[in-house]
């Protein structure tokens, strides 16, 4: 129902902040209320998620829209409720959470309160590969770093293959001739060598 509230932060407690708008004070649960300390008594836009159930109605708030999107993704995972999602985001390092999910690092995920091995596995199953389009601006470097590492690994594999072909007696001119075709594919060192030999032998 609500996307955000614009108002002033009038109170900061260990579990929530109070944002005043139009004479009404909204109790907003947040991952780390004290992150709002620098905004106390100042106007702020806080992105909110309204959680409704039979016995409760609560507002959860976030400094950025991307953090809110991450929260919404987390609460869709079986075994993680709003409180659990807040605990995951409270570390202030959501990039580490995403990296752990992408790398299937269960040992990191189970460190959060209420997250056991079963829930950690469920987080990975439900969210791996589905977060880049949700939080691209909030974590601008994570996926680029992974891509750079992937490219560096491929380049190293190809370099090793070129050295192996040279050691077999093929000239630098012959190897350079086939290198362009090999660069167009992603393979292991062994596969690069086999492919390279096929290209060399077939002229």
Automatic annotation (TrEMBL):
The RuvA-RuvB-RuvC complex processes Holliday junction (HJ) DNA during genetic recombination and DNA repair, while the RuvA-RuvB complex plays an important role in the rescue of blocked DNA replication forks via replication fork reversal (RFR). RuvA specifically binds to HJ cruciform DNA, conferring on it an open structure. The RuvB hexamer acts as an ATP-dependent pump, pulling dsDNA into and through the RuvAB complex. HJ branch migration allows RuvC to scan DNA until it finds its consensus sequence, where it cleaves and resolves the cruciform DNA. Has three domains with a flexible linker between the domains II and III and assumes an 'L' shape. Domain III is highly mobile and contacts RuvB. This is Holliday junction branch migration complex subunit RuvA. Residues 154-203 are annotated as: Domain III. Keywords: Cytoplasm, DNA damage, DNA recombination, DNA repair, DNA-binding, Hydrolase. It is found in: Cytoplasm. Its main location: cytoplasm. Residues 72-91, 107-126 form the Helix-hairpin-helix DNA-binding motif class domain. Belongs to the RuvA family. Homotetramer. Forms an RuvA(8)-RuvB(12)-Holliday junction (HJ) complex. HJ DNA is sandwiched between 2 RuvA tetramers; dsDNA enters through RuvA and exits via RuvB. An RuvB hexamer assembles on each DNA strand where it exits the tetramer. Each RuvB hexamer is contacted by two RuvA subunits (via domain III) on 2 adjacent RuvB subunits; this complex drives branch migration. In the full resolvosome a probable DNA-RuvA(4)-RuvB(12)-RuvC(2) complex forms which resolves the HJ. GO terms for molecular function: DNA helicase activity; hydrolase activity.
């Amino acid at each position: 129902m609500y996307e955000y509230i614009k108002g002033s932060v009038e109170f900061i407690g260990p579990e929530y902040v109070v944002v005043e708008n139009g004479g009404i004070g909204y109790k907003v649960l947040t991952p780390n209320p004290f992150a709002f300390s620098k905004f106390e008594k100042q106007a702020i836009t806080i992105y909110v998620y309204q959680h409704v159930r039979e016995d409760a109605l609560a507002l959860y708030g976030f400094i950025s829209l991307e953090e809110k999107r991450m929260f919404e993704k987390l609460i869709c995972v079986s075994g993680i409720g709003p409180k659990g999602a807040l605990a995951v985001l409270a570390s202030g390092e959501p990039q580490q959470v995403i990296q752990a999910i992408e790398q299937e690092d269960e040992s990191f995920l189970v460190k959060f309160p209420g997250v056991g091995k079963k829930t950690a596995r469920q987080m990975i199953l439900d969210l791996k590969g589905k977060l880049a389009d949700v939080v691209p601006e909030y974590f601008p470097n994570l996926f680029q770093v992974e891509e750079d590492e992937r490219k560096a690994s491929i380049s190293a594999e190809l370099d090793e293959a070129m050295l192996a072909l040279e050691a077999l007696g093929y000239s630098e001119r012959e190897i350079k001739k086939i290198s362009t075709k090999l660069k167009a594919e992603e393979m292991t060192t062994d596969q690069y060598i086999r492919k390279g030999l096929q290209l060399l032998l077939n002229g």
